[in-house]
Each structure stands twice: as structure tokens, then as C-alpha cells.
Amino acid sequence: MSTAPSSSPSPSPSPSSSSPSPVLVLGGTGKTGRRVADGLRRRGFTPRVASRSGEVRFDWYDESSWDPALNGVGAVYVVDSQGPGAGDEVRAFAARAAALGVTRLVLLSARIWAEVDHESGRLLATERAVRESGLEWTILRPSWFNQNFTEETGFYPLLTEGELRLPTGEGREPFIDLEDLADVAVAALTEEGHAGQTYILSGPEAMTLREVVAALADATGRELAYHPVTDDEYRVLMAERGHPAEYVEFVIGLFGHVRASRGAELSDGVRRALGREPQEFGAYVARTDFASFQEHALQR
């Protein structure tokens, strides 16, 4: 597989443009947040990196942490709590942000929420909250991440044991590179022309988990295997690892979505936002130090 060039941002405005600085990055030490913060720094902006235990403290469940994080900020990258009250939390946060002079919100949502949340609407409540905030807003709906295979604990058995057992069958998913997602987020936070947009983000190719694992095996020179399992077999595996039943049922629903290839359609969000195509999975494989992630997984 040929690979696209590594992520290189297109020319963007300087910090003296109409976009405010600093930019608050919630979940700033997480998979997406730290990449958004790095992207902001590369473009000359000042990210205020917030997390529950970082230098800038932010906790969705402690509203006393909100104002110190928000003071002097003009734009916010929003990663919600993913809890049952996330919609109400984001609504209250957006109101507080507006009162303190914030003008722009960029929300990390998920493509799968819009595809599976047809009954309760709970998973999309955060999107409604930012749309109704009265602020400039942009919503990002990515597919599953390339980086899940190295940075998500549920996938660590691939690195620690050499195998991945999931109830995903031979379904296809157009995994998105988080460098692309971060570039879109930074553009929406710092440039004009993205307000009111919902960007559905995918990679350029829908792949099976078997194809993904084969690509990672080639890159690492290790014997890695993918074993599709049934929902019931996965329940047993997760119970043995100590996961609560409610969580297991939730992720089984998400994996079932992949198994049925319901999210396999490619989307044009990266091209719409950045004017270029998303990177191929091979680009992620080529630049990733899998040994360091394997060591991290083994230590957990």
C-alpha cells in the first residue's frame, strides 16, 4: 500500500488573526487533545492544556475548575465526560464559557453516535448543546481511530499477547488518522469558515480488522493474529478482565456496528475542512514506533 505524506498543515493564520489565543484544550493529555495542542503550537498559537490532574485542572464533575480554565480564552476544544449527563454538562459549560467571553467551540463527537443513537438521543446531546449555545460551533464526527491499536487499552492484547479477539467479524471500518483529526480541529479553532459545520471524518479506505492486524504484523515483524469471536465469547473474555456488564454490553453494540459494516462508507470531512485527502492507514503504520507502545502496554 502506498502511503500519503505525513501530516503537514496547510498555511494558517498567525496568532494575530481574528482567532483568539490562547485556546483551551480539554482532555489535553488524551489521544486527541495532545495532538490538537501540538498542532496549535506548530501554528504559533498558545494551547491551554487542561485535564483532571494537569497543570491546568479541569474536571467535568467539579464546576469550580471551569472558570480558572476558561478565563481569557477565546476558543475551546471540547471533549466531553462521556458520562450519562454529558449533554447537560456541556450545556452548562457552554453557557459559562459564553459569559466569560469565549466565542468558539469545537466539539469532538463520533460518527458512530449519529448512526446508533436513534432512541434516547443521549449520545448526541452534547452536539445539541453546542449548537444551541449561541457561540460559533464546529462538530467533528470521526470514525474509529488508527491509534486505537496502540493507545486504547481494549486493544492492548494485540501488543501484549499477539492476538486480538473482538466480535467484529469481517466488517469494514474507514479508520481515521488522529493527525488528520487534529489538523481539522486546529483549523476549526483558529481559522474562519468552519462555523456551523459538522465534519464527518474517515480515512480513505474501509478495512477489516483482519487487514489491519496483517498490516501491523508486517510493520512490526511480529506474529499478530485477529480472531473474530461471538458476542457471548466476548462477554466471557471481558468478564475475565474485570469489566462491568453494562460497559461490556455498550461496547458489544459498537462492535456489532462494525461487524455489519454500517459505518464503512467513506466521508469527505477531511477534504472539506483542509482541502486535501485523509492519510492512508499505511502512513500511520510507517511512522509509528510500535515497540514503545508495546512496552507501555506491557507495563499496565
From TrEMBL:
Record-linked Gene3D superfamilies: NAD(P)-binding Rossmann-like Domain (3.40.50.720), UDP-galactose 4-epimerase, domain 1 (3.90.25.10)
Domain of life, per lineage: Bacteria
Region feature (Disordered): 1-32
InterPro entries from the UniProt entry: Ergot_Alk_Oxidoreductase, NAD(P)-bd_dom, NAD(P)-bd_dom_sf
Boundaries of every NAD(P)-binding domain copy: 27-191
SUPFAM superfamilies for the chain: NAD(P)-binding Rossmann-fold domains
PANTHER family recorded: PRESTALK A DIFFERENTIATION PROTEIN A (PTHR43162:SF1), PTHR43162
Listed name of the protein: NmrA-like protein
Origin species: Streptomyces jumonjinensis
